[in-house]
Amino acid sequence: MSPLGADITAEQAQAVLEAARKKAEQLKLAMNIAVVDAGANLKAFLRMDGAWLGSIDISQKKARTARFFDMNTGEIGKLSQPGGSLYNIEVSNGGLITFPGGIPLKIGDTVVGGIGVSGSTVENDHEVASAGAAALK
């Protein structure tokens, strides 16, 4: 498949989701985990038992943000501070999330989707998202 046509498969999305879920359970956290495809469309989602309802939307927006800009959401956050080159970007695209917990999903150098995690501190969100991203093969 060409890089322009590259997309995460349903099987890969489930593997990413499962790896993130396992990490969240290991950390004793209830998380919302979203995986989007190359077009930033929801491909897989899990709301763990007890995860915050408000974090459903945040996890999905983190995944979309990571895919829209092909960078970690925390990095976008650094650039979107007052005076930064991306100041106010979070109000674009129907609302973005610019704090950690969203990571683009890559196979080699090709971005095929994104993962977004929400439900704890941004450090924990990023750690769980990283575990999911690492499972992509």
SSE layout and pairings?
Blueprint lengths: L9 H17 L5 E6 L4 E6 L6 H16 L3 H7 L22 E6 L2 E9 L3 H13 L3
Antiparallel strand pairs: 1-2, 1-4, 3-4
Helix pairs in contact: 1-4
Could you walk me through the main structural features you see in this protein, from its secondary elements to its overall organization?
The chain is α+β, with helices and mostly antiparallel strands. It has one domain (3-134): Beta-Lactamase (2-Layer Sandwich). The chain is 39% helix and 20% strand. The protein has helices at 10-26, 54-69, 73-79, 122-134, and strands at residues 32-37, 42-47, 102-107, 110-118. It has a four-stranded antiparallel sheet with strand order 2-1-4-3. Strand 1 (32-37) and strand 2 form a beta hairpin. Helix 1 packs across helix 4. The model has no long low-confidence stretch (mean pLDDT 94).
Descriptors:
Beta-Lactamase; 137 residues; alpha+beta; 4-stranded antiparallel β-sheet; single chain; 39% helix; 4 helices
The structure class reads alpha+beta
What order do the strands of the largest sheet run in, or round the barrel if closed? 2-1-4-3
Helix and strand sequence: HEEHHEEH
* Rg calculated over all Cα atoms: 14 Å
Q: Which architecture would the CATH scheme give at its second level?
A: 2-Layer Sandwich
Average pLDDT: 94
- Shape descriptor reads globular
CATH superfamily, called what? Haem-degrading domain
CATH topology (level 3) name = Beta-Lactamase
CATH class: Alpha Beta
The domain tally reads 1
Tally of strands: 4
- The percent of residues in helical segments reads 25-40%
Biggest sheet layout = 4 strands, antiparallel
So how many helices? 4
Strand content: 15-25%
